[in-house]
Amino acid sequence: MIMRIQIAAALAALVLGAAPAVAAPFSLEAAMAYPFTSGLVASPDGRRIAFVREVKGERNIFIADGPAAAPVRATGFSGDDGQELTQLVFAPDGRSLLFVRGGDHDGNWAAAGNLAPNPAASPDEPKVTLWRADADGARALAECDAPAVSATGTIACIRAGQVWTVKPDGSGFARLFFDRGTVSALRWSPDGSRLAYVSRREGHALIGIHGGAGKPITYLAASSGNDGTPVWSPDGRQIAFTRRWDGLDGYARFLDQQPSPWAIMVADATTGAVRQAWASGTGLRDSFPDVVGGANLHWAAGDRLVFLSAATNWQQLYAVPAAGGAATRLSGDGFMVEHVTLSPDGATLYFSANTGAAKDDDTRRHVFSVKVAGGPVTAVTAGTGLEWTPAATHDGVALIAAGPRDAGAVNWCAPRCTALPGQAAPRDFAGAAMVVPEKLTWQAPDGTTIHGQLFRPVGYAGKRPAVVFVHGGPPRQMLLGFSYMRYYANAYALNQYLAARGFVVLSVNFRLGIGYGWDFQHPADGGPRGASEYQDVLSGARLLQARADVDPARIGIWGGSYGGLLTAQALARNSDVFKAGVDIHGVHDWSRSMLETIGPPRSAGDTQRDRALATAWASSPLADVVGWHSPVLLIHGDDDSNVRINQTIALAAELRRRAVPFEELIIPNEIHDFLRHAGWARVNAATAEFLERQLKP
User: I need a labelling partner for 36 at 20 to 30 A (CA). Which of 51, 54, 109, 325 fits?
Assistant: First the structure.
């Protein structure tokens, strides 16, 4: 039967910090009061930076003019309205900043009717709008997205998959040209006379160049591959871009891993003639990078093309002459490079990586630099904190620095790193009372080394209830501190709150995640090919059962997205171990996802399809629901463009049919990464209350 609870009362008790049997040092509200910083960018000359700061759901953009200058608030938005601020880009002169307000920029597909999210349930339909901020304030320009501004001041943006332009005062909004595909990745030539872009077609993608009114589009050596990441040479005569071939298509890719080889092409921007400057190998590790930013292609000083490759099992930086030749590796092995940016003069690369001189730095992020021409890698930051998303300045680099008790603030490093003034967390933020998580490693049953972080409660004696946390993605890595992703900064705060309430919390970095090499991220039998990652989760719970401070009969699990999938899998396969769980927008039937993504069989008797669907079903939580006995709380926003709510609807129907106790919290209008602070507060409070009620005597 369905157990229905009065969630509102539970929320009030937890958010206001009602006294438990052993008083918690902080409330859930205090745990969530951290400021979250994102979107850090620098002006083309590196003399100004801008970033987004969100405090309790209120988002605004700040601009700073140097390491000693207090950031100036450039926008005047108020309230927890759930409207994102993204796509920050400075005009060439650095005096104005463009940005986009609204939308869901992390969804896997567009919402029906291209409707923008409306998590605050406003009676007025929200729109995705382009804004401009300068010394006179911020103003909306047009309904469009993904801005790019030329050297001459022309602003291009994307609306309904096509390119539009608008003047800095918001006038003259009109479509620039027509393209048969869906347009993305707008890139102006250095002189502002031409616009390169990606045109996504059915099964392939092209690079197009718009050269002016009345001139035909120039397409660069169209092929059956997927072209992307166009970058101009400094003189505007050439364009480099990536070309990749995705291996198996349709259901076949869910049966076997196949390499996705790729190449870097260089085109004459006038004639469209194309030559190959570099090509990957043909092994699995040579596949096109599937990390944020993809290949991270840059045209750097000395006509060198810089990119990422995991050919050695580790995502590393390489440089190759634009004229063609052998690639030179710029960074070392044993760690993963992320968040790459180029200095204004094109001679220096800044990047973040999970390495450093301190113990356990493989579970942190630090910022480094290296010359494009090669040479030693220099650490910009070090220690037990975390630093990420460098933005190159004229005198060094700006970055976001965080830690175990600090969600992050912008630092300007020139070369010494100094936090910009005026970024203190709200007084009610409970960071000082949070525990410092410990890194743990253990062996999965097949011998794979698994990493995780342990949150140990302070001030509690005896055997405690415990919770396993499993992240989503799954190409993510949970860290020894606050995350650079908003979703996981929230998860970290909730894990801290659970520890403060007396839970021993283990966050598991299971295989399929990043930070431990290409092979770890791409197991042959992971996900819908066999769910081998589940053994990492179960072995983590076994590790907790063996601890002297854990009651082995009171272990729960929670997670969102892929973590919701693994939570459901744990409860279906091992209700004997996991006594309760909170499943937030999880995938519950891989085969349903495949059918929705790929569609019906191409022909009768499609054995590949049948095999793929059978394996996917066997890898799904619903396949093992007969063994599910533990209670679960199901949570889902019904405007989710990453995991369809039908996944939760299907699971709820099956649990109801089998009389498995479950509760549910459906949040109207919310997306996958709940946009409102109030939305996350409801989710966190319901999660904590449910776990306490189920796992504490």
Answer: 109
**Main-chain phi, psi angles of 285, to 5 degrees:** -65, -20
As given in the structure block, the two tokens for residue 213 are 């009114």
Q: What is the dihedral of CA 556, 562, 564, 566, to 10 degrees?
A: -50
Neighbour tally for 434: CB within 10 Å: 28
Q: Are 142 and 165 in contact (CB under 8 A)?
A: no
- Phi first, then psi, for residue 133 (nearest 5°) are -120, 135
- Residues in contact with 650: Cβ distance below 8 Å, sequence separation at least 6, in sequence order: 588, 589, 592, 622
The count of other CB atoms within 10 Å of the CB of residue 214 is 6
Q: Residue 321: phi, psi to the nearest 5?
A: -60, 140
Residues ≥6 apart with Cβ < 8 Å to 371: 330, 347, 348, 349
Vertex 687 angle, CA 684 and 692, to 5°? 125
Pick the CATH number of 32-176 from 1.25.40.20, 2.120.10.30, 3.10.20.600, 1.10.3720.10: 2.120.10.30
Residue matched to tokens 């002169």: 93
CA-wise closest residue to 231 among 258, 202, 207? 207
Helix runs in 256-318, H state only: none
Point out which residues pair with 278 in neighbouring strands.
264
Closest CA to 598 of 297, 279, 253: 253
Listed in order, strand segments (DSSP E) in 102-224 are 129-134, 137-142, 145-149, 155-159, 162-166, 174-175, 182-188, 195-200, 205-210, 218-219
51-108 pLDDT, tens digit each: 999 999 999 999 999 998 899 999 999 999 999 999 999 999 999 999 999 999 998 8
Please determine whether the domains at 32-176 and 191-329 fall in the same fold group of CATH.
yes
- Asked if the 191-329 domain carries CATH number 3.40.50.720, the reply is no
Q: Could you give the residue ranges of the DSSP H alpha helices within 501-561?
A: 518-521, 534-545
Identify whether 474 is preceded by a cis peptide bond (ω within 30 of 0).
Answer: yes
Q: What is the pLDDT of residues 501-542, one digit of tens each?
A: 999 999 999 999 999 999 999 999 999 999 999 999 999 999
* Amino acid present at 386: L
Which two three-digit tokens encode residue 86?
């993204």
Structure tokens at 136: 């006179």
Task: Report the predicted TM-score, pTM, of the whole model to 2 decimal places.
Answer: 0.95
The answer to whether residues 281 and 301 touch, using CB atoms and an 8 Å cutoff, is no
Rg of the chain (C-alpha set): 25
Tokens of 484: 């650079």
Query: Taking Cα atoms as reference points, which of 584, 644, 613, 620 lies closest to residue 109?
Result: 644
User: Tokens 């630099």 label which residue?
Assistant: 369
**What is the rounded CA–CA span in Å between residue 254 and residue 240?**
32
Using CA atoms, how far apart are residues 526 and 570, in angstroms rounded to an integer? 15
Residue 225's nearest CA partner among 209, 249, 196, 251 is 249
Topology of domain 434-695, CATH: Rossmann fold (3.40.50)
The answer to whether 638 and 648 are in contact (CB under 8 A) is no
Q: What is the reported pLDDT for 666?
A: 98
